[in-house]
Design brief:
Elements: H1 4-11, H2 21-32, H3 48-72, H4 87-109, H5 120-142, H6 149-152
Length: 153
C-alpha cells in the first residue's frame, strides 16, 4: 500500500466543495459535438460517428457528476435512497423527468433522427427508462408496498 496515487485517493475528502462549472462546460461541449457539425476521428473502429457518440456519453457522465454534487453536496455516483431529503417530491419530479426523457428519446429517434446519430434515440430512451425504474422503486420504498411498517406507527 505504498502507492502514492492510491493513498491520495483514499484520503481525498468527498465532502470538499468543488467547482462544477468544469463538468458542465466539458459535458456541454461533448454533447454538442455529437450533432452533425461535430468533429471527431475514425479511431480503430473506423467510424467518426461512433467516436462522437462515445464523447457524448462521456459528456452525459459529466452532467451527471455535476447534478449529483449540486443535489447531494458531495462527490458520488449512486444516489441511494437514504440521501433523499424529500422523497415524495423527488419521486414525482423524477417520474416527470423520466417521461420527458422518453419523449425526447422518441423525438430524437423519430421525427428528428436526421440530425442525430442512429442510436441517439435509443440511448436517451434507455436513460428515461432507468429514471422511471428508480422512481418506481423509490415510490415502492417510501410510499408503496415496500414501506417499512415501523415508520407507520
Amino acid at each position: 500500500m505504498n502507492d502514492p496515487v492510491l493513498q491520495r485517493s483514499m484520503t481525498a475528502n468527498p465532502f470538499k466543495p468543488i467547482d462544477i462549472r468544469f463538468e458542465v462546460i466539458i459535458g456541454t461541449l461533448l454533447v454538442f459535438n455529437t450533432l452533425p457539425f461535430g468533429i471527431g476521428f475514425a479511431g480503430p473502429w473506423e467510424d467518426v460517428g461512433f467516436t462522437r457518440g462515445i464523447g457524448g456519453l462521456i459528456g452525459c457522465y459529466f452532467f451527471y457528476r455535476a447534478w449529483f454534487f449540486s443535489t447531494f453536496g458531495f462527490h458520488g455516483l449512486i444516489p441511494s435512497l437514504h440521501l433523499w431529503s424529500n422523497p415524495s417530491r423527488s419521486t414525482s419530479q423524477l417520474t416527470l423527468i423520466g417521461v420527458a426523457t422518453l419523449v425526447l428519446g422518441w423525438v430524437t429517434g423519430g421525427p428528428m433522427a436526421f440530425l442525430f446519430a442512429e442510436p441517439t434515440g435509443l440511448i436517451i430512451t434507455l436513460f428515461g427508462c432507468l429514471m422511471l425504474l428508480v422512481a418506481g422503486y423509490a415510490w415502492l420504498v417510501f410510499d408503496g408496498g415496500l414501506k417499512d411498517s415501523n415508520e407507520e406507527e
